[in-house]
Amino acid sequence: MVVNKPFYLVSRLPMNRVAEAKGNNNISLMRWAKNRKAQQWKFDPVAKVIRNMNWTNYIMEIPSKGGANDLKISGTISSRHWQIFRWEAPYMVNERGKVLDVHGGLDNENRNIIVWNRHKGLNQQWDLIYADAYPDEPKKGEFSKKFGLYVERPFYIISQMPSHRYLQVLTGGKFAIKTRNNRPHQIWYFHQASWTIRSKTNNQSWNILSNGGGKEMQITTTNSNWW
Q: 20 to 30 A from 99, CA-CA: which of 177, 197, 216, 227?
């Protein structure tokens, strides 16, 4: 690691979320947000620790003097083994061999990052990208390669069944196919900041019911979880 140079830890899970220090001292997986300092880290060569760029007096550590599997930020700096990490691409490795691990391998917003024995799973693999080299996300009107959609460019979804009806949101948020009527209830757009498809009628996002366990869909308040 380059000393004192801010970087992001970017998960290699499909959505490429980043490690972010949270107000409750947890470190969680979150979608990247430009200039959010809580998502940036730096290596302190004097204390040999990794500091957070938002809470600069807080560092990455394994609680209980390394006896836990949690990963936290701490304001008590001892430079002992539970606070010492090194970069061995694609792993961030603690002095005693445990690596950063997305808990349960779930690529979800706000999922806890822990430490675990290395098993080489994708949930333990990261890219270390320095802040000054991190690519900007596509802006309004630009194409998102990750999602295959243009950012905030309105579109219709048309059934390929014989009548070619249009996807429409109904009162209450459920979906149906209807004859084209040029109302905003049939117009959709991709929202880059939340990674969701939204309705032009109220800017709410697509959602699979039962937290992804159901078969029906509706629009609802945006939460950016996988469903």
A: 227
